[in-house]
Each structure stands twice: as C-alpha cells, then as structure tokens.
Amino acid sequence: MGAGGETHPLPLPQAGGEPVRSAPASRILAASLVGTAVEFYDFYIYATAAALVFGPLFFPSDNADLQLLLSFASFAVAFVARPIGALVFGHYGDRLGRKSTLVASLLLMGGSTFAITFLPTYAAIGVAAPAILCLLRFGQGFGLGGEWGGAALLAVENAPPGWRARYGMFPQLGAPVGFIAANGLFLMLGLWLDDGEFLNWGWRLPFAGSILLVGIGLWVRLTILETPAFAAMLAHEKPPAVPLAELVRHHGRETLCGVAAAVTCFAIFYIATAFALGFGTTQLGYARGDFLQLQLGAILFLAVGIIAAGWLADRTSPARVLMLGSLATMAVGLAMGPLMAGGTAGVFAFLSLSLFVMGFVYGPLGAFLPGLFPARVRYTGASVAFNMGGIIGGGLTPVIGASLASQYGIGAVGWYLAAAALVSVIGLALLPKGGSGSSLGA
What we know:
Blueprint: E1 14-15, E2 18-19, H1 25-52, H2 54-58, H3 64-95, H4 98-116, H5 122-125, H6 128-156, H7 164-192, H8 195-202, H9 204-221, H10 228-236, H11 243-250, H12 252-282, H13 288-315, H14 318-340, H15 343-362, H16 365-368, H17 378-395, H18 397-408, H19 410-429
Antiparallel strand pairs: 1-2
Helix pairs in contact: 1-3, 1-4, 1-6, 1-7, 1-9, 1-12, 3-4, 3-6, 3-17, 3-18, 4-6, 4-9, 6-7, 6-17, 7-13, 12-13, 12-15, 12-17, 12-18, 12-19, 13-14, 13-15, 14-15, 14-19, 18-19
C-alpha cells in the first residue's frame, strides 16, 4: 500500500526478459525460520540471564530490587540499538538486496552474543564490566534491528498468491523455537549445576553455544537466492539513493501506523517472559527451574497462536487479525492481577493465555508490515516500524513492570499491558483506506 492508500500487487518477476529464479520453498522458509530462531535465541538468553544472574554479577547492590532494575535497564539498551540497526540494514537491504544484509545481521548479533561468554564480572574489572556488557548488548540489538525485516521479506516476497501470511508466519515461529532452546538450556543447567556453579560459570554456556547456531544459520542463508520482488524492482528502476528519505516523504502515515501496530506484541511478550520470570522468582517465591518449566509449557501456546493467526490472516486480512489480537490483549491485561495471584494454576493460565494471544498480534506482522510499503523501501519501512514498535512496547517494559509491581501491585502491570494494546488498536484504526497489509509487490 502506498501513501495514498493504493496497493502494490505482486508482479511477475522478470530480469533481462527472463523469469527470476527462486529457491525451493522449503529452503526459503527454513532460511527465514532458522535465522530468526538463532537471533531470538541470542536475544532470549540475555533476557533470561538479566532476570536471573546479571544483577549480582554486573550491577551489585545491597538493594535486590535495584539490582534487578539495573539488569533490566541493560536489557533495554538493545531496544535503543534496534531502530539504528533497522535504518542501517534497511538502507543496504533496499539498495543491495536482502540476502547479503541478512548474513551481515546474523554475524553481528551472533558475534556480540558469543563475546559475552568471556566477559569478566564487576568483581574482576569494576565498572568496565557493565559498560562492556551494555556495548555488547547494543551489538545484539543492532543486529536484530536488521534481522527481522529481512527474514520477513525473504518469506513474503517469495510467497505465492493467497499464502502471504502463512509464509510470513515462519520468521515469527523463530520466536518460540528460540525461546524453547534458550530457556530449555537454562533449565537443564539448573538441573545439572548447583546455584553456586550456575552463578560462577554455568550461565556462560548458553552464550558460548550460540556460535554453533549461528553457523547453522549462515549455512542455510548462503544457499538461497535474492527475492524475486527485489530482482523485479531492479529490472525496472534504480534503488532509492536514501530509502529513509523516500519513506518519510511518501509513506509517513503507514510507518506510524505500523509502529503502533507492533507495540502490543512486544509488551505482552516481555511481560509474560522477562518480567514474569523476575517477578515470579523474586516476589512470588518460585524456584528458577519451576518457573522456567511453566514458561516452557506456555510458550507452546505462542506457536499455536502464530499458526492460527497466519491461517486466519490469509482468509481475512493481517490487519483484522491484529485488531482482534490487540483487543484480546486488553482483556488479558485486566485479568493479569487475579491470575498471577492465583497460585501455580493461575500463573500458568496467565502465561499460556498471554502467549496464545500474542500469536495474534505477532504472527500476522510478517505479512502486515511489508505489505504497507513498495519493494524499493520495504526493508527500511518494515524494519523501522517493527523496531520502533519494539522500543515503545518492549524496551522499558520489564523495568516499568518491576517498578509498577513494587509500588502498586501486579494488577497495575496488567493495566500497563492494556494501555499498550490500546496504542495498537488506535494505530490499526488510523490505517489509510486499503491498508490491510496483505498485498506485496515491487
């Protein structure tokens, strides 16, 4: 959809008079899934470590609440880096292509994550430890800023008609896959190691293991071709000199609405994962392993929600499914207080319901955001919208949640979640006419 509400139908890709070849669907979908699974694994192991160990190791304080807040604040650094990464990788993705940009983003985030393995703690090098940690966290966020948009475009720009949302859900499925791998590994370490061993060195193992996953992601991505939509665009016109400038001039309203639409998925996810883990283990008295088991069971509902939302979005539109999910998130927020106070059954019900509903505000984004922009600025537009939504919806959510819970109780966190969902409802309601996010083309 363009600035005036027009759509961008997918053309038959041609280059030099010949059809543009495309990689097999299985390889395309695997490349979009495995890359985001690796990226989200990297991202989630930081979130889990921030909730469990980074406070005492890198931000020591006699005040346990302050330790947790500072640890979550370092987590938020990546959300500052993400839109910067979106601009840089989006610029080159719209000018040079999707494939090479995706490889670069994977290397940057994977390298930053692996380096955390060897980082000395505050006790060893003082304030340099949290400073370097934040720098590496910035590298993680910078890489992820270019990752999601490229993976989504790789999937949907290769999708046959009528399958945009179902292809677009594959990058989204990287989220539960990465989460299961990250938290599953932390859970196993908790079973194998005692608390002292885990705090001293065990937490480093998931960061070290990321290098193997990055290798798998690179192998898959280096075997794919450029997307047909980008090749078709190059066959007919030059890429924009400055994609961001063109995006601002001609697609400002779509970008703002896309940002708002992405807010809910970040808010609900980080409340149900990073915040809930920290709150559950420090305020509700759950053992780390017990709460991780609850989250691992609940994350399966996210996968189910993503698949259901992708199917429904192809039969209606991504925007309608996002609206449905945003309204449901408001209801989940209002139920958060009673459920989290309802014992283990209530906590698991909240986690499962939240993550299932998240599938409806996350799954369709892979088709929705790219569908707002023409191919020449699609990487930039989708990446900027997604990552700016991440700053608003997720960047400070664990910190705000911890602060609200300590001052006003857990119910206030639910109201915060409902308010975030309202932002998405308003953004979706203000979409220009025809802005379903379901059409793609050059």
